[in-house]
Amino acid sequence: TIADHDNSLQRTVALFPDIMKREAVLSVLRSQGYVSDLELELKNAQGEEYWALVSACYLDYEGEPCILFSINNISRMKAVEAELFNERAGLEERFGEEKCLQEIFTAADDANASLAGVLGKVVSLLPGGFRSTEVVSVALRYGDDVFKTENFVETEWNISQSSTVSEGKELSVTVYFPKMYEDTGKNSFQLDKRVFLNTFLQR
């Protein structure tokens, strides 16, 4: 749209849900005379936010200084990008779990290692099955014995699985997080990780 210079600047207030981003864009526009292909979140006339590709430049229209804005709605493209990102993240998560389980099974098959040695090794490997490897704490309990990862921190955010193994003893594993993942997809995340932990326990 083409409008009067001052009025155009005023109208951008309604377009930008984030005023600081609006001011940053206008600052660039004032300094270099144009902005090109900026990916921004804007707000439509109904107050709904959407992703847009924004370009703008100064020009004269019938002798008046104006700003020409070009706004392309790219919300669908961003949604597809997010979906592809989530699919890739999911595949990477499954690959990490598979690699972790293989390392655990290899450690468990070491005929020369003591049971305590195997469980100590296993608890150090289990964080590898989680994307946040460096911030995950794990406690492995076998009967009365407890094995923990280095720098162990117990938090209120955790998932736990257990199984009865040889001699009627219970083997349980609890994974602690510094914070629980976002509510979006949290149930799916917990389900996937419980499957991962169960696979380990059933071995």
Strand order of the largest sheet: 1-4-3-2
Distance between the termini: 65 Å
Largest sheet: 4 strands, antiparallel
Relative strand content: 25-35%
Low-pLDDT sequence parts: 1-6
Give average pLDDT, whole number: 83
Class computed from helices, strands and strand pairing: alpha+beta
- Global geometry: rod-shaped
Helix content: 40-55%
H/E element sequence: EHHEEEHHEEEEH
| Number of extended strands | 8
Q: Provide the gyration radius in Å.
A: 27 Å
Give the helix tally. Answer: 5
Describe the protein in words:
It is a single chain. This protein is of the alpha+beta class. 43% of the residues lie in helices and 31% in strands. It contains 5 helices and 8 strands; from the N terminus they run E-H-H-E-E-E-H-H-E-E-E-E-H. It has helices spanning 5-15, 19-32, 75-108, 115-125, 186-202; strands at 2-4, 34-43, 49-61, 64-73, 137-142, 145-148, 157-164, 170-177. The strands form 2 sheets. Strands 1-4-3-2 form a 4-stranded antiparallel beta sheet, sandwiched between helices. A 4-stranded antiparallel beta sheet has the order 6-5-8-7, with helices on one face. A hairpin with a 2-residue loop joins strand 3 (49-61) and strand 4 (64-73). The longest helix is centred in the middle third of the chain and has 34 residues, at 75-108. It is rod-shaped. It starts with a strand and ends with a helix.
